[in-house]
Amino acid sequence: MVAPGNSIGTLTVTGNFRQTGGVYQVKANAQSQSDRIVAGGDATELLELVEEAFDKVSLTIERLFQRKRLLRRLILGMLATAPRALM
Question: Do β-strands 10-13 and 36-39 pair in parallel, antiparallel, or remain unpaired?
C-alpha cells in the first residue's frame, strides 16, 4: 500500500515510480487538496491505476443517480395512485 503521509501529504520519488499492484490510498478534502506522488521520472502505471479508479467511481455514481431516478418515479407513481385518504 502506498499512502503519502498521515494527513494530506506528498511522496517524492527522484526516479521512476512503479506500482504494479496493491493499493494507492489517497486522502482528499473539501478544499480540493489531496495526497500526491511527485515522480522525477515516469509514473505511467500510477496514472493508469488512478484512471481506472476514477472510472469505477464514475460508474458507481452514475448507478446511484439511476437508482435515485427510479426510486423517485416509483414514489411519484405510488402517490398518484394512492387513495386521497392516505394523503
Answer: parallel
